[in-house]
Design a protein that fits this description.
mainly alpha, Fumarase C, Chain A, domain 2, two-stranded antiparallel ribbon, two-stranded antiparallel sheet, 19 helices, elongated, L-Aspartase-like, Fumarase/histidase_N, 3-carboxy-cis,cis-muconate cycloisomerase, isomerase, 3-carboxy-cis,cis-muconate cycloisomerase activity
Length: 447
């Protein structure tokens, strides 16, 4: 697979460098060493043996290619990894390595460890997006623009309130992701810590599980979750929620950058947005990268959702199908948010284009308040018809909507021209736009 050309460009390059096969091996090793230490602390491993394991294995060079080749026969990376680790240990230590654990304990816990720094990076990027969005909100809380529904001009809003909705979406998703727990996995062969019980007590396995969580900096689950995939489901859907919020931002910006609209532009950079054949083009490439990554995250989320119900005490293919989508989702999302942060921090806003587009219909965008003004005198049906007729006249003849309205035969002499001018001013028909920006800013600053 030409991943470097068709997959990796959508991902965070720094995350790719940190989240590789070597990192997965080190995460599996961290689990095993923490397990040995937890067991030694409770007398199940002789003193100093966990330290000897750490000394021998932390500097050991694992054969990653051999581990990868071994997955074909065992079905997961833990089996060949454990074989290599034991082979590197002297006879007196071998029996204490991987004691009471099963392959799923190793892989699931390693994945949680692998993803922990990625979630921290995602949170930092989302906070960066929030700060940039709040600056835009403050700068443009009175910048009037066209509000569009079904891709058509509707009524005026402010650019500040548009940005506020982007910011709220991203922040809601950030808080949801921040609330997701990454639990350790430790249950043994069938999830009940078989063989670890001692005379007079059968809670030793759960004790080890809790100690493992503390040592690894992961959360302690209520029970081992081998086929209870709620942790993965929660994480996958939270990642997808962030992807959806980022995609909304990118879609809106891309639409507003269209040549005929031109209300915003992506930050300029040498070569950014260039075409292979058309020198004049400035394509919204950052938006394309965000949306491309988000679409892939959406697809990965469906795999995770479809794998949520797993059979009996160990998944048969469902568990295996989770690994790549889970990690890829985090890497793709980190790449998307890197682009989103740059996009928001350097977004070029063109209020003059917004004013031009407000006048594109001659002011017919204000037909709704005009109809409200006419209704008490002419009745609602006639008011709606007349306001629409004046809007069409303004569009076809290229005159101001107020002028077209003033010369309409059914309106002449009925309205004060100053009142018509007021009611057709987009800046005076913004509803709660400004207070929405203020309310959004207050909420965004609460965390």
């Amino acid at each position: 697979m030409p991943a470097a050309l068709i997959q990796h460009p959508f991902m965070s390059q720094s995350a790719l460098a940190e989240c590789n096969a070597e990192a997965m091996v080190q995460a599996m090793l961290a689990f095993e060493l923490a397990l040995a230490e937890a067991q030694e602390a409770r007398g199940a491993v002789p003193e100093q043996m966990s330290a000897q394991m750490r000394h021998l294995l932390e500097g050991h060079r694992f054969d990653i290619d051999a581990i990868a080749a071994g997955i074909a026969s065992g079905g997961n990376a833990a089996i060949p990894f454990v074989k290599q680790a034991r082979a590197a240990l002297p006879a007196e230590l071998k029996r204490y390595f991987h004691q009471g654990a099963t392959s799923q304990d190793v892989v699931d816990s390693a994945l949680m460890l692998l993803l922990k720094p990625r979630l921290a990076a995602l949170d930092a990027l989302l906070r960066r997006c929030r700060a940039a969005a709040m600056a835009l909100m403050e700068a443009h809380d009175e910048t009037v623009m066209v509000g569009r529904t079904l891709m058509q001009q509707a009524l005026p809003i402010t650019f500040g309130v548009k940005v506020a909705h982007w910011a709220i979406g991203l922040e809601q998703a950030r808080r949801r992701l921040a609330g997701v727990e990454l639990p350790v996995q430790f249950g043994g062969a069938v999830g009940v810590h078989s063989g670890l019980e001692e005379p007079g007590r059968d809670d030793r396995g759960l004790d080890y599980m809790d100690a493992l969580a503390e040592r690894l900096g992961l959360s302690a689950p209520v029970l081992p979750w081998h086929t209870d995939r709620q942790p993965v489901h929660a994480l996958g859907t939270a990642l997808d929620a962030v992807a959806g919020a980022a995609e909304k931002l990118a879609l809106d910006v891309a639409l507003l950058t269209q040549t005929e609209v031109g209300e915003v532009a992506e930050p300029s950079a040498p070569g950014m947005g260039e075409s292979s054949s058309m020198p004049h083009k400035r394509n919204p490439v950052r938006c394309a990268l965000i949306r491309g990554a988000a679409r892939q995250v959406h697809g990965h989320a469906t795999v995770l959702l479809n794998a949520a119900a797993q059979p009996l005490e160990r998944g048969l293919g469902e568990w295996h199908a989770e690994w790549a989508p889970l990690v890829d989702s985090a890497l793709l999302l980190e790449g998307a948010l890197e682009q989103a942060a740059v996009l928001l921090e350097g977004l070029e806003v063109h209020p003059e284009a917004m004013q031009r587009n407000l006048a594109a219909t001659g002011g017919g965008i204000m037909a709704e308040p005009v109809a409200k003004l006419l209704a008490p005198t002419l009745g609602p049906d006639a008011a709606k018809r007349i306001s629409a007729e004046a809007a069409e006249t303004a569009r076809l003849q290229g005159v101001a909507y107020a002028a077209a309205l003033n010369v309409h035969p059914e309106v002449q002499g009925r309205l004060d021209p100053e009142e018509v001018a007021r009611v057709t001013d987009p800046s005076l028909y913004l509803g709660s736009s400004r207070v929405q920006v203020a309310r959004a800013a207050e909420w965004l600053m609460t965390s």
